[in-house]
Design goal:
11 helices; binds dinuclear copper ion; 434 residues; 5-stranded mixed β-sheet
Length: 434
């Protein structure tokens, strides 16, 4: 009963699920037995007439008391024993696990491998070999959660914590942050790729991306850092719009006031200071203590890159394409000339559908759009329907009316935010994803 757990992709997952299901079943059994008895007695011994009935006084029963003390104690000891035994297997990765350092920060995951290779929001590990993730955080509490591997552990600033497991299946699995850690907590996703040993060796040895970063012109490197390593884009826009921090558009060379009213010019020194000591001179109108220090995380070359990139964002035509290219999630398209599918794709990327619905079949928060059109779906209320134009429209306007089974009713309604033509474009785009 109640078998809702995701795919089992680690060696300890079957044991853990077995214990989890055992506890669930025991709990369900007692809930039904106790509530059932309560309901039965309430009906059986209800007041039937106006007469006065006194309940007989029943004195204690040693036999009953022994049974209901000993039986639950034995059940608890049994569960505790297996809980400890499975936990011990989980935390002991065995001989020579592959070590991966994980650094959580608002709002991304950095991974570092034994040969020095680093990645952001993507971990790759070989199948069938124990792996040990060594977690820490640079700012607040985060939590490293890989449901398919049945591991979850907090990443804590100034401390190391560990998770270990042995993946038994190749594939790509989602990694979530499961500790509310600020504005972009829900976007703090990464993927775990489990590959064969050969593929892993090849991947690990391939440092071409890092080499390319070394050879990159500074402004290009800066853009890459804005997007990836620095996660600057969570708080600093490139188009003038206000996010958590000031937009980088036309920022360089501007005269600003800090919270004490001192004027300063945004130049190389100010930008570097803001990266290393973000709270020293906060621009008036913005809150302090939000930006983490990047001291020790970005080297001088990278800081120079960020400065060079900000310098290019002067709002002139020459830099505009760079700004657009910097946000590949939302490329500018000529909407007048675009086909409905292209317009739908643009809406998918800009109206945030992309954060919860993949187009490659992988499950994020909501169902993937790939192949969903025309498919038969079962809903949380038990009914079924084929996904057609009417269903898509309803799901956009009133998302919680019919939620596909297995998904949480968390989508906000887009009523008033998308018109009929836009909904038709999105539908066309979904239809195109066979
Ligand atoms: Cu990091 Cu939530």
């Amino acid at each position: 009963m109640f078998r809702f757990l995701p795919e089992q992709a680690s060696a300890h997952a079957p044991e853990m699920d077995w214990l989890h299901h055992l506890i669930t079943d025991i709990s369900v059994f007692f809930i039904v037995a106790i509530c059932g008895a309560m309901i039965y007695f309430a009906i059986r011994y209800r007041k039937r007439d106006s007469g006065h009935h006194e309940t007989p006084q029943i004195k204690g029963s040693h036999l009953l008391e022994i049974i209901w003390t000993v039986v639950p104690t034995l059940i608890c000891i049994y569960i505790a024993y297996y809980g400890v035994a499975i936990y011990r297997d989980m935390v002991n990765p065995g001989e020579k696990p592959n070590m991966v350092n994980v650094t959580a920060r608002q709002w991304k995951w950095d991974f570092q491998y034994e040969n020095g290779k680093t990645t952001t929001n993507e971990a790759v590990i070989p199948v069938g070999e124990p792996v040990k993730f060594i977690l820490t955080s640079t700012d607040v509490l985060h939590s490293f959660f890989v449901p398919t591997m049945r591991v979850k552990k907090d990443a804590i600033p100034n401390r190391y914590t560990y998770v270990s497991f042995t993946p038994v299946k190749t594939g790509t699995y989602p990694i979530f942050c499961t500790e509310y850690c600020g504005k972009d907590h829900s976007y703090m996703l990464a993927s775990l790729k489990v590959v064969s040993r050969g593929e892993y060796d090849q991947w690990l040895a391939d440092r071409s991306e890092e080499l390319a970063a070394l050879k990159m012109p500074p402004a290009e490197l800066g853009r890459k850092i804005w997007e990836g390593k620095g996660a600057c884009k969570s708080c600093h826009s490139l188009d003038g719009s206000r996010l958590v921090g000031p937009s980088w558009l036309k920022l360089f060379g501007r005269t600003e006031k800090d919270t004490q009213g001192n004027e300063f010019v945004v130049d190389e020194n100010y930008i570097k200071e803001s990266i290393i000591e973000p709270n020293k001179h906060v621009v008036a109108g913005y809150a302090p203590n939000l930006m983490p220090s990047y001291a020790g995380q970005l080297d001088d070359r990278e800081i120079n890159g960020v400065i060079a990139f900000i310098r290019t964002l002067d709002g002139t035509g020459a830099s505009a394409p760079a700004a657009e290219a910097a946000a590949p999630a939302a490329p500018a398209i000529d909407l007048a000339k675009a086909t409905p599918v292209e317009r739908g794709k643009h809406l998918y990327e800009t109206k945030l559908c992309i954060t919860c619905h993949s187009i490659d079949g992988s499950k994020i928060v909501g169902p993937s759009f790939k192949g969903i059109y025309g498919a038969q779906h079962k809903f949380a209320d038990g009914s079924t329907a084929v996904v057609d134009d009417a269903y898509i429209k309803q799901s956009i306007l009133q998302p919680t009316a019919k939620v596909v089974e297995g998904y949480a009713p968390v989508m906000p309604p887009f009523q008033g935010q998308l018109d009929d033509a836009q909904i038709a474009d999105i539908t066309a785009f979904i239809k195109s994803l066979k």
